Amino acid sequence: MAGGPEKMVSHSDAPLTQSRETGDINPESRQGDPIVNRDKSTTSFAKSWNHMLAGGIGGMTAATLTAPLDVLKTRLQSDFYQAQIKASRASIAAPMNPLRTVAFHFNETMSILGAVYRQEGPRALFKGLGPNLVGVIPARSINFFTYGNGKRVIGEYFDNKDSPWVHLSAGGLAGVVTSTATNPIWMVKTRLQLDKNMALESGSIAKRRYKNSLDCIRQVLRDEGIRGLYKGMSASYLGVAESTMHWMLYEQIKRSLSRREERLALSGRPKNWWDHTVDWTGKFGAAGFSKFIAAVITYPHEVARTRLRQAPMADGRPKYTGLVQCFKLVFKEEGMLGLYGGMTPHLLRTVPSAAIMFGMYEGILRLLNTPA
Q: Is 190 a residue whose pLDDT tops 60?
């Protein structure tokens, strides 16, 4: 050929080009550069920790705002309060229709909340908040960190980030890791919430069993050993189904909202008041609704977990010794309603809590320019 044979240039010999506007190296000419790849890896690793930060802040805010309902839920799940409720219901002779039953249960729940305030003071509504926050912040940080990065890694490996089974896998992994790491904290929180200042025992006012969190840990280790700190672990693992279902439903609703936004943009139609409402509240509603569905379906594990973490009886023996035994005994003594004790305050707490927590999580990730 006239110009002589063309010189074959390997990728490693390719010259770096500069941008005429900025003088910067053209990224396209450095796709195989190990320095560029290392920078991308470092950036990805740094952004992965943003999930932990966002989850921790979201969990802390939600737990603080809904602490009174968490105390109420825990007490209603215990057998002490269920016995009181059963006695009060025995005075009602005529059966109630479903609507009256819901109204009666709601009033019953609110009356117990008022009784806690009157008998034990306003501080009792936040009893256990200290260990709760000590548990919530690492629990939510670990959960969101594991889920966010698990979804990314699994999705990239199988090249299908938005698949429901990817969300299920990441949610299950996050639930198992979180439950294992934080079970001792939740056990202490439950014991403190059930440690009543004004409980009547044998006609006298009982004294508090635990002075504080450290005293609770000391007594548990002394009387029950290290295994005592992991009571309720089996029920916690059963509860992984709830968090996994919640994540999957939330992701699918988010995906539907994104498709709705794309269709609206393609149509060219200006947004009306409903479209703006969905923009502002869509993800909050998605988090709350998905939590409601998941909590109702899997709620009995919450009761079992609380019962398994209760302090031993007066003779030192635990009333509930295992997950299956706990379910059988509760069903035998209290019927099916016993397995759903405390569900009303649980839903009143967890639904807005999930909306607050996930809303803050998404907002903080957006501020940190990290993909959810």
A: yes
Residue 303, phi-psi category: left (phi > 0), alpha (psi -120 to 50), beta (remainder):
alpha
CB 353 within 8 A of CB 63: yes
Q: DSSP letter for 212, please.
A: S
165-190 burial, b if ≥16 CB within 10 A, otherwise e? ebbbbbbbbbbbbbbeebbbbbbbbb
- For residue 144, report the phi and psi dihedrals to the nearest 5 degrees: -70, -35
Residue 123 has pLDDT above 60, yes or no: yes
Asked whether the beta carbons of 108 and 86 are under 8 A apart, the reply is: no
- Rounded Cα distance, 185 and 93, in Å: 43
* Better pLDDT: 136 or 292: 292
330, 339 in Cβ contact below 8 A?
yes
Domains and CATH numbers, the chain: 53-196+230-367 (1.50.40.10)
Report the C-alpha gap between 197 and 121 in whole angstroms: 10
pLDDT at 59: 92
* Length of the chain counted residue by residue: 372
pLDDT score, position 358 = 92
What is the distance between the alpha carbons of residues 362 and 372, in angstroms, rounded to a whole number?
7
Q: How confident is the model at residue 370 (pLDDT cuts 50, 70, 90)?
A: confident
**Full DSSP string of 105-155:** HHHHHHHHHHHHHHHH-GGGGGTTHHHHHHHHHHHHHHHHHHHHHHHHHHH
Query: What percent of the chain has a predicted confidence (pLDDT) above 70?
Result: 77
How many whole angstroms separate alpha carbon 65 and alpha carbon 154?
34
Number of H helices, E strands in the chain: 12, 2
Q: At what angle do helices 233-267 and 273-298 cross, to 10 degrees?
A: 160
- Cβ burial of 77 (10 Å; 0-12, 13-18, 19+) is buried
Place of tokens 């709601």: 106
Percent of the chain residues topping a pLDDT of 90: 23
